[in-house]
Amino acid sequence: MTQNYYGWGLPIDISTHGAGIDKLIWIVHIAMVLLFVGWLLFFVYTLIRFRERPNHKAEHHGKHFKLPTYVEILVAAFEVFLLLAFAMPLWNQAKNQMPPDDKALHIRVIAQQFAWNIHYPGKDGIFGKTSPNLMDSSNPVGLDSSDAAAKDDVVTINQLNIPVNTPVIVKLSSKDVIHSFTLPVMRVKQDVIPGQSIPVWFQATQTGDFEIACAQLCGLGHYRMRGFFNVQTQEDFNKWLQEQAPK
After folding, report:
1. DSSP state string for 101-160
2. Residue-wise pLDDT tens digits, 53-92
């Protein structure tokens, strides 16, 4: 059972990098409210100022003033400020702070219409060989069973489990169309593009049961792209991974 982590505000944040993203989201929303209220007041003013009145002749050419132009320039400048001061530093931080390979848990996520196929390397930490020619309903990631490294690999469908307080590197790929891998509580959203392997990383700060969503309309069964995201203690994660290992 997933937790009810949605409300009037943002979902809870259990990621190490989420605070900066939430700050940017709140700044953008506050700016949108101020802009909306400002234009609404201006709209009400024009309705009253230029209303139809007795003995008042309309001026078809109107009166031109530069305030709206100045406001538009100010809004554009503020958007550039947000990009340079907040958005780009957050993006660079995520890119440049990718954890070392030997310090992170590596997972492959292969999207398809309409499921998330999740591939763990198993106890040896090495992914077995895969091939598109081997993919079918019983082998959604195309795992080559003849490869020694594949013997202990774990494959789940719509079930992503990770240990808490551990960096996780996820390699995203797609079998068919563009999907969007989204973990709301981790502040992670990344388009999954066919033909590409796209890395994302994150680290959870608390345990719990949450959801995976697809934020890209990917076909008639898009509503089925709901997965389960469980953050566990290291002990529980090791136990779960052992239970899932091929017998």
Report:
1. GGGSEEEEEEEETTEEEEEE-TTTT-PPPB-GGG-BTTBTT-B-TTSGGGTT-EEEESEE
2. 888 776 767 666 777 788 889 989 999 998 888 888 888 8
What does each C-alpha distance from 179 to 75, 139, 161, 193, 208 come to in angstroms? 32, 20, 20, 7, 25
* Amino acid type, 196: Q
Q: Do residues 216 and 178 touch, judged by C-beta distance below 8 A? A: yes
Question: Are the C-beta atoms of residues 206 and 226 closer than 8 Å to each other?
Answer: no
Domains of the chain, residue spans = 18-96, 102-244
Which pTM was predicted?
0.82
Task: Tell me the one-letter amino acid at 49.
Answer: R
C-alpha distances (whole Å) from 124 to each of 148, 149, 152, 156, 166 are 10, 8, 7, 18, 18
Radius of gyration of the chain measured on its C-alpha atoms? 25
- The pLDDT confidence band at residue 2, using thresholds 50, 70 and 90, is very low
Cβ neighbours of residue 108 under 8 Å, at least 6 residues apart? 118, 119, 127, 141, 170, 171, 173
Structural tokens at position 2: 């997933």
Between CA 150 and CA 205 the distance in angstroms is: 31
| Long-range Cβ contact pairs of 135-144 (< 8 A, separation 24 or more) | 135/175, 140/110, 140/112, 140/115, 141/108, 141/110, 141/117, 143/119
CATH number of 102-244: 2.60.40.420
